[in-house]
Design goal:
There is one protein chain. By secondary structure, the protein is mainly β. Helix content is 10%, strand content 48%. It has one domain: Elongation Factor Tu (Ef-tu), domain 3 (Beta Barrel). The radius of gyration is 14 Å and the shape is elongated.
Length: 101
């Protein structure tokens, strides 16, 4: 990143960026179909982010990475992820700490 962008984040955003990359643990029937890159992430009816990638873990089942608005990045926050067959329930996790639920 350039110096100007960093200074803008520090002064306008009080040192906080708008979105953060988090891990997502998908659950439920719709979670069997992995979300596509760019799929929307919702908190109730509000669009709070987007999926960057998803995979099926042999140990954890369906998981994903996504950028989410800073107000929803607390581990344990419940969100929904868009899939072809509907919205799948998901839980926000810290990167490297996606655990079974």
């Amino acid at each position: 990143m350039g110096q100007e962008v960093i200074i803008r984040v520090l002064h306008r955003g009080h040192g906080r960026v708008v979105k953060k990359l988090v891990g997502l643990r998908l659950r439920g029937e719709q979670a069997q179909e992995l979300p596509e890159k760019g799929a929307k992430i919702y908190s109730e009816h509000r669009d709070v982010g987007g999926v960057t990638s998803a995979a099926s873990s042999p140990r954890l089942g369906p998981i994903a990475l996504g950028y989410i608005h800073r107000d929803f990045v607390t581990p344990g926050t419940r969100v929904e992820v868009e899939t072809r067959s509907g919205r799948a329930a998901a839980i926000v996790s810290e990167l490297g700490k996606i655990e079974s639920c």
